Amino acid sequence: MIVLVAKYVVQPGHIDTVLDRLREMKPRVDAEEPGCTFYQVSRSTEQEDLVLLYEHYVDEDALLGHRDTAHFKEIIEGQVVPLLVERQRELYSLAIG
C-alpha cells in the first residue's frame, strides 16, 4: 500500500474554488480508480489557505495511473495547480493499518 500526502498552499482568495474542484475530483476517483482505496481532502483549521490530501493506493502502478487520468490532468493540473502558491507531496508505505 502506498500513501500519498499532499499539501496545497492556495493563493489568497482562491480557497473556495480549489475546494470546489477537489469536490469534483473525489467522485471521479471513487468511480474510476479501483486502485485508489482512500481519497480524503481536509482543510487546515489553523492556516486559512492550506489543504491536505490523504490518499491510499494499492501499488505504484495505481498511483502512477492516478496521475495519468483525464480527471487528474483536467482538474488538478489544469485548474487547481495554477491557483497554488506551493504544492508538497510525500509518499509513505502503510506500516500499520
Can you put this structure into words, describing what you see?
The protein is of the alpha+beta class and 97 residues long. It has helices spanning 15-32, 60-68, 70-80; strands spanning 2-10, 36-43, 50-57, 84-93. The protein has a single domain (2-93), classed as Alpha-Beta Plaits. Helix content is 39%, strand content 36%.
Gross geometry: globular
How would a crystallographer describe the biggest sheet?
Answer: 4 strands, antiparallel
Number of domain modules: 1
Order of helices and strands: EHEEHHE
CATH topology: Alpha-Beta Plaits
Considering DSSP H and I runs of 4 or more, what fraction of the residues is helical?
A: 25-40%
Task: Kindly provide the name of the CATH class.
Answer: Alpha Beta
What is the spatial order of strands in the main beta sheet?
2-3-1-4
Radius of gyration (Å): 13 Å
Would you identify the regions where 5 or more consecutive residues have pLDDT less than 50?
none
Number of beta strands: 4
Q: What gap, in angstroms, lies between the N and C termini? A: 10 Å
- Mean pLDDT equals 97
Can you name the CATH architecture?
Answer: 2-Layer Sandwich
Structural class: alpha+beta
The number of helical segments is 3
Summarize the helices and strands and which ones pair or pack.
Elements: E1 2-10, H1 15-32, E2 36-43, E3 50-57, H2 60-68, H3 70-80, E4 84-93
Helix pairs in contact: 1-3
Distinctive features:
97 residues; alpha+beta; Alpha-Beta Plaits; four-stranded antiparallel β-sheet; 39% helix; 36% strand
